[in-house]
């Protein structure tokens, strides 16, 4: 297994070159760029409809790897077909990697994902989670956190909170599929690449969920993508952990979380979240963090 | 040649086995189940070496996985029916747009609501604008032959489109008929391994299914041209097919048309019943014949018009309905004849929905109604299953 000890170990070779149509500061694009450094050119990226679908735009592509965009809800099934197709054709050493948004993963594509995971298909499924339907202009998905305003959960007189539904605990769900499941952050690339490297060596399904900071939807200055990604981890909004064989490992432990307020105030989507909403969000984060601490190095699902 | 008793479902499964499909994603639905159960049994018994039999969680995922496997160059087979075919609908367009020669057996069953398990052709015909090649078999021998031919046609570099082979649920899917099952060597001679030049492979990165801007229409036009090309390819492959298997097929199936004044236009298994009725009516001196539509897409304009141009009156018998319009093939026949110098009278009959039996007597009744229409010089559009609606 290829292991990365520091930033200096990360290969310079890029398979995601210039010329993409993504926003400046796009978190998910940076995530794919990093991922391909580990995965290499003999990789098929299976994409679900979303922001990343616009990376290749006929007749150009910024990618030096293969790419299949099928529809929004079927990336995992498409990947399963590609995996078995490659295996039957004697190309078993090529990587099949899903790169799908959170709406395509948590919502519309969940049946397809769940089946591929239950069957332990040899696929790396990366969910770039920008906590919304980003490409259509930032609408609510079941990955949208409590208190975030979106275009379909706007704050108003009747509902000052915006999103009142608490997002799915996807890692736990995927962990319960008895596969390798991990979160990752752009601010911790060494951790991300090691998780990918591990997934690449596994003879089965891996699920990696990367927080994909979204400059347009979250409404922040594009230069702050990494800073925001780091804060999400430090505030416990995006804890870094992994589940394998049902065992939980907290990858970045902190004696104390930073208050969520620091994360919220940098982004337009939380502007005007009333104090009781902030309080409730903080309570949800504390509860999740306490659960992770309690089960660290123990059986979790 | 030795004949074997097999159902339509088994005939389709034999097709998948003989073409050495590398990947068979599947999901059960009545009346298709026996087809995939047969393949599952063979797979478990080691009789499908080189094939991965993949149980999916929905028909949508079946077609999605088919796309994934075909995009990396695998020969893919699957089968479905009814609601399952509708659930696939979105991905059918994608498979055609990506030019992936997947072959699928469809076993026709009426659509809900209300629920029926029995056959009509609405599920199949609902896919007619999807870009797929669409073939419809009359009997179990033709099911198997069509699957073999479908791969050869679909994989032709001038075509590269997915193909559907339709059979009527129950009437064919669960009925044993004696058929010739060719040897693997014969099939290998007719259909060598699939070696695509355009799919993803090692050292050949390819982008499949990206967005386009102004070029969209070009891709749609190419899909259309490829489908039209298939008309020639269908005819071309018949020589090889006949040489190896001793059978030959045409773009349309003509039955007693040479001197026919009245022509019945049918599809699928009801054609056999209609042919039996025609033989009896011929004994009574009625000059009636039959045109069976076996290639629905691409539409064989010239073959259809050529076969019908000398008729005085035509009854299009649709085992399907477009509510608010009538039978689906009725207007297709009319527009095919519209530019002829002399146009026959064309009446439409909607029959046999949800498995309602299409008997010889009903065929005779339709023929007599057509004679009345001809005498009156006035065509009709009628729902023949019912006394009145």
Summarize the structure.
The complex is a heterodimer of chains A (301) and B (389). By secondary structure, chain A is α/β, with parallel strands linked by helices.
* Beta strands of chain A, count: 8
- Structural class computed from helices and strand pairing of chain A: alpha/beta
N-to-C CA distance of chain A: 26 Å
Pair with the biggest interface: A-B, 44 and 43 residues
What would you say the CATH architecture of the largest domain in chain B is? Answer: 3-Layer(aba) Sandwich
- What is the element string of chain B, with H for helices and E for strands? EHEHEHEHEHEHEEHEHEEHEEHEHEHE
Radius of gyration of chain A: 18 Å
Which topology of chain A does CATH recognise? Rossmann fold
Which CATH class of the largest domain in chain B is shown? Alpha Beta
CATH class label of chain A: Alpha Beta
Describe the model.
- The complex is a heterodimer of chains A (301) and B (389).
- Chain A is α/β, with parallel strands linked by helices and 301 residues long.
- Chain A has ten helices and eight strands.
- Chain A has helices spanning 27-39, 75-88, 102-107, 110-118, 170-175, 189-201, 215-219, 225-234, 260-264, 275-295; strands spanning 43-47, 66-69, 95-101, 124-129, 180-185, 206-211, 241-244, 247-250.
- In chain A, β5, α6 and β6 form a beta-alpha-beta unit.
- In chain A, α2 (75-88) packs parallel to α4.
- The longest helix of chain A is centred in the C-terminal third of the chain and has 21 residues, at 275-295.
- The radius of gyration of chain A is 18 Å and the shape is globular.
- Chain A starts with 26 loop residues before the first helix and ends in a 6-residue tail after the last helix.
- With 389 residues, chain B is of the alpha/beta class.
- Helix content of chain B is 40%, strand content 19%.
- In chain B, β2 (23-26), α2 and β3 form a beta-alpha-beta unit.
């Amino acid at each position: 297994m290829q292991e990365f000890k520091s930033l200096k170990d990360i290969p310079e070779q890029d398979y995601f070159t210039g010329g993409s149509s993504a926003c400046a500061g796009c978190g998910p694009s940076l995530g794919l760029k990093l991922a391909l450094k580990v995965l290499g050119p003999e990789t098929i990226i299976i994409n679900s409809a979303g922001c990343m679908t616009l990376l290749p735009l006929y007749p150009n592509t910024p990618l030096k790897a293969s790419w299949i965009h099928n529809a929004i809800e079927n990336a995992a099934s498409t990947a399963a077909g590609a995996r078995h197709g490659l295996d039957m054709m004697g190309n078993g050493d090529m990587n099949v990697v899903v790169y799908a948004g959170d709406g395509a993963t948590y919502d519309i594509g969940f049946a397809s994902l769940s089946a591929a995971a239950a069957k332990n298909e040899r696929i790396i499924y990366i969910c770039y989670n920008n906590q919304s339907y980003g490409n259509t202009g930032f609408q609510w998905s079941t990955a949208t956190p409590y208190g975030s305003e979106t275009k379909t959960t706007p704050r108003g007189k009747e509902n000052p909170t915006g999103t009142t539904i608490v997002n799915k605990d996807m890692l736990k769900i995927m962990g319960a599929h008895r596969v390798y499941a991990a979160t990752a952050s752009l601010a911790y690339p060494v951790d991300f690449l090691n998780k990918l490297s591990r997934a690449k060596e596994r003879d089965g399904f891996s699920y990696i969920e990367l927080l994909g900071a979204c400059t347009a939807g979250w409404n922040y200055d594009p230069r702050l993508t990494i800073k925001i990604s780091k804060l999400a981890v430090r505030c416990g909004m995006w804890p870094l952990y992994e589940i394998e064989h049902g065992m939980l490992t907290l990858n970045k432990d902190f004696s104390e979380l930073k208050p969520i307020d620091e994360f919220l105030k940098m982004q337009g989507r939380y502007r005007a979240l009333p104090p009781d909403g902030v309080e409730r969000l903080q309570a949800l984060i504390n509860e999740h963090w306490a659960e992770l601490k309690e089960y660290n190095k123990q059986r979790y699902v | 040649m030795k004949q074997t008793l097999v159902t339509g479902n088994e005939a389709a499964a034999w097709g998948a086995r003989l073409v050495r499909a590398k990947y068979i994603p599947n999901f059960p639905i009545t009346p298709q189940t026996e087809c995939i159960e047969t393949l599952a049994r063979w797979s478990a018994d080691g009789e499908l070496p080189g094939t991965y039999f993949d149980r999916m969680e929905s028909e949508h995922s079946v077609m999605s996985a088919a796309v994934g496997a075909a995009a990396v160059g695998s020969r893919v087979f699957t089968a479905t029916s009814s609601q399952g075919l509708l659930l696939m609908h979105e991905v059918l367009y994608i498979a055609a747009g990506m030019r992936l020669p997947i072959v699928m057996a469809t076993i026709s069953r009426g659509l809900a609501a209300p629920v029926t398990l029995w056959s009509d052709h609405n599920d199949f015909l609902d896919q007619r604008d999807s870009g797929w090649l669409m073939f419809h078999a009359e009997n179990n021998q033709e099911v198997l032959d069509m699957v073999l031919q479908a791969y050869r046609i679909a994989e032709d570099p001038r075509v590269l489109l997915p193909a559907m082979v339709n059979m009527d649920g129950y009437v064919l899917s669960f009925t044993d008929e004696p058929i010739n099952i060719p040897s693997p060597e014969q099939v290998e001679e007719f259909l060598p391994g699939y070696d695509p030049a355009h799919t993803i492979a090692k050292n050949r990165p390819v982008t499949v299914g990206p967005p386009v801007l102004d070029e969209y229409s070009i891709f749609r036009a190419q899909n259309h041209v490829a489908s039209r090309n298939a008309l020639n390819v269908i005819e071309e492959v018949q020589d090889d097919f006949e040489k190896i298997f001793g059978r030959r097929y045409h773009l349309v199936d003509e039955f007693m048309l040479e001197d026919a004044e009245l022509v019945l236009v049918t599809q699928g298994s009801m054609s056999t019943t209609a042919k039996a009725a025609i033989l009896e009516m011929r004994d009574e001196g009625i000059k009636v014949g039959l045109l069976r539509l076996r290639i629905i897409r691409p539409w064989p304009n010239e073959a259809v018009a050529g076969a019908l141009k000398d008729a005085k009156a035509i009854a299009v018998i649709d085992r399907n309905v477009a509510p608010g319009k009538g039978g689906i093939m009725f207007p297709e026949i009319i527009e095919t004849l519209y530019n002829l110098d002399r146009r026959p009278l064309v009446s439409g009959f909607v029959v046999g929905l949800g498995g309602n039996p299409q008997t010889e007597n009903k065929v005779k009744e339709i023929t007599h109604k057509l004679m009345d229409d001809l005498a009156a010089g006035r065509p009709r559009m009628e729902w023949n299953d019912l006394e009145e609606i």
